[in-house]
Specification:
Number of domains of chain A: 2
Largest interface: A-B, 51 and 43 residues
Low-confidence stretches of chain B: none
Distance between the termini of chain B: 76 Å
Order of helices and strands of chain B: HEEEHHEEHHEEHEEEEEEE
Helix content of chain A: 25-40%
CATH architecture of the largest domain in chain A: 3-Layer(aba) Sandwich
CATH class of the largest domain in chain A: Alpha Beta
Helix content of chain B: 10-25%
Oligomer: heterodimer
Number of helices of chain A: 9
Shape of chain A: rod-shaped
Order of helices and strands of chain A: HEEEHEHEHEHHEEEEEEEEEEEEHHH
Mean pLDDT of chain B: 88
Number of strands of chain B: 14
Low-confidence stretches of chain A: 1-8
Largest sheet of chain A: 9 strands, mixed
CATH superfamily of the largest domain in chain A: Class I glutamine amidotransferase (GATase) domain
Radius of gyration of chain A: 38 Å
Strand order of the largest sheet of chain A: 4-1-5-6-18-17-16-11-12
Structural class of chain B: alpha+beta
Radius of gyration of chain B: 24 Å
Shape of chain B: globular
Chain lengths: 364, 273
């Protein structure tokens, strides 16, 4: 009964608490408040009807806080969006690696797949092995003056009524079928003009070199049709990850070319991101184990506290009994001594004087 | 010379009564169950070729089931916004989103972190200043799932010192342990209960096999426990750091919490510049 009473608050909390999606977006750097980027990603996730009401999204902009929260048991899914506003992500590397190896589900965006930033996560969690950036060459478009319709052209010439525009965009080409491509076009372009890539830097100029992890299931889902470099990769080993090569170079200012909304709000990218989160959410195996282990640990801590209290209570009760006995003994000894002294000092002399007092003389 | 018996009797009774009263007073509980006799720490910690010693010496004033000591070490972190309107918990949470996030996530699991609030004195070159101090320790949340040694490096403890008007004077973040990165920084550590000692040393410092344990085997998370403590038992925790391994910092705070039978007895805050 007592055990049930002790266990119930934790189990109740466990049942009531929604699992958490931990979303790392980076800090505020000058005018660049990357929380806005995080909020945009959170909006994308929340707008997925499949996730409605299922999770609590916690936005984090500090690596130390992320590092601590990653060990909290209620974390069921993690999104790590790293941009060029941070040079390294050293402080979240150990916890992210631990989380993944415990069976966690992670979505990585931008520099998450770059080795200079995420060190040993690159290859073990985010298998892009990137060591360089690929700047996409500009592409010509013709925009209809009347309707605004836009079409890509191979040569920089447009018909009358159309205006030539130069734009940079990354072209996505489906490399393999996968659950996360459901509802996403097989080929599409995205305004993000840069992505992380592994290049053989011993060549001049450096050229793309395909690498994949030695173990685990690696699936290249989308690639750049120009060089066949991976743009979206699903990786399953101890945990499950989906890594997006794009999104490293962002700005939160609308007037900038790299404004994050230009790719976050792209319908294909949006769907792909939603599918990625939904996929890792369902594939991860860490959450239930962690919650069970935490409940067990919390019970153990409570039990240890209770055991200590019981031992203290027992020893205090023994101490109180012995103190009471000591006090009673002290009082008894004291009273006896006082009685003896009083008898010797006052009663005995009185008796003796009574016995020695001469009887009154008889009258003749 | 004849002595009056009644006088002797009065004196005798007075002696018995005073002895009884004295014995009752002696038997009464001391004000503190565990008294910290020495709490030594270096006033300045810098990356220099020298050793820095930390000494905690205590005496038990009565028999106790358990006396435990909890160490935390924190570093000062500069904050952009240091102005708050008051010193109540809600305002602190609102102004320190990091602490707020951790409290929310702990509450979600129905776990209450260790917290403490009180006054703290801080002495600079010219004067001694007093602040309201709030401490939040989320170690138990991390400990529940993280591997033992991993938890040593995770920031779980937060302290804020506030002026009376609520403005943040200093803000600290740190870990639950004797010191950061104990395998590199701690040269030796000794835990003594009367005549019995446990010796721990950095692997590089162990010359004689058997006498010393490796420092990683010292009590985890800086939690030292003494059991079956008798009255007048003496308890010591002594350790030293290698100066060259100390990370650069702009102020460090060591927290030493002494618990007797599960209840906090003493809270020491040792600031090191």
């Amino acid at each position: 009964m007592l055990a049930c009473l002790l266990v119930s608050p934790i189990l109740m909390a466990q049942e009531e608490a929604k699992p958490v999606i931990l979303l790392y977006h980076g800090p505020k750097v000058g005018e660049q408040d990357l929380r806005l980027f995080g909020e945009a990603i959170a909006d994308v996730i929340e707008s997925d009807s499949r996730m409605a009401g299922k999770a609590e999204i916690v936005l984090v902009g500090d690596q130390d806080l992320m590092n601590t929260l990653l060990y909290f048991p209620q974390v069921k899914c993690v999104v790590i969006a790293l941009s060029t506003w941070e040079l390294t992500a050293d402080r979240i590397v150990p916890s992210t690696l631990w989380y993944f190896n415990e069976g966690g589900g992670i979505v990585g965006i931008g520099n998450a797949g770059h080795g200079d930033v995420t060190k040993k996560l690159n290859g073990s969690v985010f298998p892009l092995f990137a060591n360089q950036y690929e700047q996409v060459a500009p592409t010509f478009y013709c925009v209809n003056d009347a309707t605004g319709e836009e079409k890509k052209v191979e040569i920089p010439r447009c018909d009358p009524g159309w205006t030539r525009v130069l734009k940079r965009a990354t072209f996505y080409h489906k490399a393999n079928d996968h659950e996360i491509t459901d509802g996403v076009e097989d080929s599409f372009s995205m305004a993000s003009a840069r992505y992380v890539i592994h290049k053989n830097i011993t060549k001049t100029p450096p050229e793309f070199l395909f690498l994949e992890p030695e173990k685990g299931d690696y699936t290249m889902v989308y690639e750049d049709p120009n060089n066949e470099a991976p743009l979206v990769v699903v990786y399953e080993e101890n945990g499950t990850s989906v890594t997006f090569a794009a999104g490293d170079q962002i700005s939160v200012r609308e007037e900038d070319d790299t404004y994050f909304a230009t790719f976050i709000e792209d319908p294909n990218f949006k769907k792909l991101l939603q599918n990625a989160v939904y996929y890792v959410w369902n594939k991860e195996t860490k959450y239930d184990d962690a919650m069970a282990k935490a409940a067990e640990e919390f019970e153990k801590m409570e039990q240890e506290k209770q055991d200590l209290l019981d031992r203290v209570e027992e020893s205090q009760s023994q101490e109180n009994t012995s103190k009471l006995l000591r006090s009673v003994l002290l009082i008894v000894v004291g009273v006896v001594l006082i009685v003896v002294i009083a008898y010797w000092a006052f009663v005995m002399p009185a008796k003796q004087s009574g016995e020695e007092e001469p009887a009154p003389a008889e009258e003749p | 010379m004849k002595v009056d018996k009644s006088l002797v009797g009065v004196i005798g009774i007075a002696i018995v009564l005073s002895t009884m009263i004295t014995l009752f007073i002696i038997g009464e509980r001391a004000q503190e169950d565990v008294t910290v006799l020495r709490n030594e720490f270096p006033a300045r910690l810098s990356t220099m070729e020298q050793k820095y010693a930390f000494v905690l010496s205590m005496i038990a004033r009565k028999p106790l089931t358990e006396v435990s000591v909890q160490y935390n070490v924190l570093s000062r972190v500069a904050l952009e916004n240091t102005t708050t309107e008051s010193t109540d918990q809600e305002t602190i949470r609102a102004n320190l989103p990091k602490i707020d996030s951790l409290l929310i996530e702990s509450e979600r699991m129905d776990i209450t972190p260790d917290t403490w609030e009180g006054r703290v004195s801080w002495r600079n070159v010219t004067e001694t200043l007093e602040f309201d101090m709030f401490m939040y320790d989320f170690t138990d949340m991390v400990k529940a799932t993280a591997p033992n040694f991993t938890a040593l490096d995770v920031k779980t403890t937060y302290v804020v010192w506030l002026w009376d008007n609520g403005t943040i004077f200093y803000y600290f973040e740190g870990v639950s342990d004797f010191f950061y990165n104990r395998n590199r920084t701690i040269v030796d550590l000794t835990i003594t209960h009367n005549d019995e000692s446990e010796y721990y040393r950095a692997v590089s410092e162990i010359e004689v096999e058997g006498k010393y344990e490796q420092i990683m085997k010292a009590p985890l998370l800086g939690r030292v426990t003494f059991t079956d403590v008798e009255k007048d038992d003496r308890l010591f925790v002594i350790y030293s750091l290698k100066g060259t391994t100390i990370p650069s910092h702009s102020g460090m705070l060591q927290l030493v919490r002494v618990y007797r039978d599960g209840e906090m007895e003493t809270f020491e805050t040792n600031y090191m510049s």
